[in-house]
User: Fold this.
Amino acid sequence: MSDANAASNSAISGFGTQREFALRDAARAGDALTVGLLLRHGADPRVEIESRSPLVHAVAAQSVECVKLLIPVSDVGAQKNLALHTATQNQNLEIGRLLLPHCDVFERTKAWPNAMLAAHGEMASDEWIAELVKRAGTTPEGERPNNFDKTMSKMFFLSARSGAWRSIEAILPYVDANALDDNGESALRTVLSVPFGSVFECVAPLLSGADLLAADKQGRNPLMLAAQAGRTDSVEQILSHAKAHGQEPGATAVDEDGETALMSAAEGGEPGSVKALLPWSDPTRKTPYGDTAFDLAVRASRWECADELAEHATPAFLDRALMVCPTPGVMPRARALHDARAIQGELAAVAAVQAQEDAAEPQNIEARAAQTPSASRRGPRSL
Assistant:
């Protein structure tokens, strides 16, 4: 074996020469000028010192210029995938995009099963995760790994739980929108259960082909979950989609507590959802405990929701709600309806009295006539 080959093998095995140590230090420092100089003078970029190649060190230093110099001369394989994971940790999309065409996103590393799951674990941006998914999707069907479907399904639900709509859109071509996770939840119901942020963009792609009547273990369909979460935009999305496609949105269904989506919206305190659901719902429907949506809103002190439902409340419940409402001006419809009913009641009472008087008038006339002496019984008129 020649001295050159021996030196090369020694370097690749992890010991390195002065050039390789210098290349590592230059990459770690993000010194593109020195990296280029060392490469031209024979430094071997395949050498892994402390289990890291110069490419990985350059990525960790977030040096775009060093990465550009090292990618063409570095081995395709574990080190490039490690570099990709490092870029993901650093949230550096520019470097990630440089590495992506040269990496296998399904390749396993010590820390993560693959780059996509690593991105979720490292809380990478939705935009970057979507790019990783798109890269995975370009793999020809015959060359996809055995875990392709399982990985995509897992990514699907991870994206749903985190409200990552770009990822969801990227994954949808490879999964069943109505598929269930290990807990029996669909992605649409999972998205609507996310307790933070806007999920409007996530719901839109999931609605296509989704079963709007499919319920979870508590009997809650997507419309109920959106109403419970106070997501008026999602409630309107589901209703609009159902109307456009001639579907039943699930507004008349009840959960395990006997509550409809309208009741959930009223109790949850979102007047916009209540207003959107009213044309699809029966506001007089009662729970097994005898409560209407108006009753639930009043009990939960959701005065604006109660106001939307005021015209469907019984007079007794409406009066009681106005008595317990702490702010007089917060229920203008209810107050106006109460006043209108009071005026109508007064007018009805006056009309009833008048009717009684009118009915009694002929009898009064006859009685007065009977009490008045007739002309034949009166004496002659004095002159």
Residues 1-15 have pLDDT under 50 and may be disordered. DSSP finds 21 helices and no strands in the chain. The longest helix spans residues 332-371.
